[in-house]
Write a structure and sequence with these properties.
By secondary structure, the chain is an all-alpha fold. Helices cover about 80% and strands about 0% of the residues. It contains 17 helices and no strands. Helix 6 crosses helix 9, helix 9 runs antiparallel to helix 12 and helix 10 packs antiparallel against helix 11. The longest helix has about 30 residues. The C terminus is likely disordered.
Length: about 425
Amino acid sequence: MNVLQITSLLIVLAGCFGAINYLYLKLPAAIGILVVSLLASFGLLGIDLIWPALGIADTVRGFVTGIDFSEALLEGMLGLLLFAGALHVKLSDLRREWVTVFLMATLGVALSTVVVGFAFSWLTGMPILLALVFGSLISPTDPVAVLGVLREADLPKTLETKIAGESLFNDGVGYVVFLVLVGLAFPSDAHHGSGDSPLGAAVMLFIQEAFGGAILGIVLGWITFRVMRRIDDYSLEVLLTLGLAFGGYELAVALHVSAPIMAVCAGLLIGDVGAARGMSEETRRYVDAFWKLIDEILNAVLFLLIGFEVFAIAFSGDLLLTGVATIFIALLARLAAVAVPIGMLKPFRTFSQGVTPIMTWGGLKGGISVALALSLPDGEWKPLILTCTYVVVVFSIIVQGLTVGKLANRVGRAPDLM
């Protein structure tokens, strides 16, 4: 199948599964599509067990592995999703919470990586450096899933900003940490950096990726904003934002700087400064509606693909038990990533009620973790990493995703709001 046929099939399936969820399951859209996709996948596997001569599982597995989920997300969908998410976060709100967001997206990701790495190495006997690679890929949270389920919770604005900002930036930081650790764990597969010292090369890679991505995003966003100020044509201005998201992401990949951080910085600038000073009211409405639609469609396709990735995972009893244990490790690491930065800042500022449990349970894992796991070089530990990643992601999206709104409403609302 060519790219157009694959895209058409995915959109058709996402629409059909979304309709099934809307009519019968009535779950939040993205979570419902994932549940229906998982049920369809297990149904096909069940049919294959009963009638193996049909070869259904092999056919679907060939289709799923042929899509290259890792490349489709990391080289395409992720940039659009992060740009869309950043458009709706105001810089004025983020400035008030920037210290908290910065600490959670940097120190928090580092703590989570270390906690998962050492605990996973102790649990499985995996070499510590490779276990740290697993820690880095399971630490980023999914900003789209997080924001989607928290919209119904009516949280204080400061808490919403912390959750949104941290979710957007820790994706980019987590991706950079992953690249650094992969370069150390698989020296022959390192794509960036050079020098005699692997640690020195890793530090230079982190600086190049993180700061280079931020600078590129700000520069491209500013250029686009200046052009949009001179135009009053909503269709052309929507096209310019799409070109910024697509072209900027690919340029960041070509320049070996962090494309996710580029997308977030560009989206923040266009969504705040660009919307306030470079767009008419009509253009703002169209840009907002366009990117909301793009966000919903890509999110539906992404969660559909996550459900079908069950065909690319090697399941066995031992691996599944390890995956279940990894859920608790990931939650403990997330608690450390939230509680330590908040504890450091509590003497100097106040926090919204229930911030630690909400941000811990609301740190949903998503497609980026699966994509990073699939991108690892083949080896004896890769099946274990893939299985554990998949189990944690599915638990996070379905169980945490369906309950975090209720938790937020219970512990995160001030008495006068209840």
